[in-house]
Amino acid sequence: MTEPTVLIVPGMRDAVPQHWQTLLAARLPRVRSVAPMGRDSLDCATHVAAIEREAQAVEGPLVIIAHSAGCIMVAHWALQTKRAVQGALLATPPDLESPLPEGNPTIDALRAGGWLPVPRSRLPFRSVVGASRNDPLGSFERIAGLALDWGADLVDLGRVGHLNPASGHGDWPQAEAFVAQLSAAR
Question: Which of 40, 70, 80, 121 is most enclosed, with most CB atoms within 10 A?
Answer without folding.
Answer: 70
